[in-house]
Amino acid sequence: MTEKLRIAVAADNAGVALKDALAAMLREDHRVTEVTDFGVPDATDDRAYPLLGLAAARAVADGEADRAVLVCGTGIGMQISANKVEGIRATVAHDSYSAERSIKSNDCQVLCLGGRVIGPELAKKIVAEWLGYEFDPDSASATKLGHITAFEHDHQLPTTADAAC
Ligand SMILES: O=C[C@H](O)[C@H](O)COP(=O)(O)O
């Protein structure tokens, strides 16, 4: 059972309509205790996506939120931005299988969506499913992710001697 989740959301003006639709859904979800909206408040705010996405990703990295949903035109700019924050694993996922594996294989805390790519009903379904997935820290995937975390800390390329896989 997934514990109660604190979700950060953010978008630029290309993603704000979808962000607001997802935030409204998340606020009604019994698995979510808190939704923190990092903006933008509406489409007249033309701040660039990194200004919003980096703040939301930092909140996750700092333990102020458990996960984040970031929306721009494609999701790509938000994904790149969020992945610059140490400890963050962010992905674009516009299909349910990728969203599921982003948790179960990759322990991603951040899901990025494109407001110009996906419709609100499919996005809501994917996000609702995504809330229910948990990473298993005892799985074989954890060893693989460990190579990424180690590189993030020491910037040394992993070798096959470092781990079984
Ligand atoms: O990845 C970037 C986003 O899609 C953004 O909303 C639009 O960026 P652009 O104006 O640089 O195309």
Automatic annotation (TrEMBL):
It comes from the Bacteria. Its EC number is 5.3.1.6. Pfam families: LacAB_rpiB. Keywords: Isomerase. GO terms for molecular function: ribose-5-phosphate isomerase activity. Coiled coil: none annotated. This is Ribose-5-phosphate isomerase.
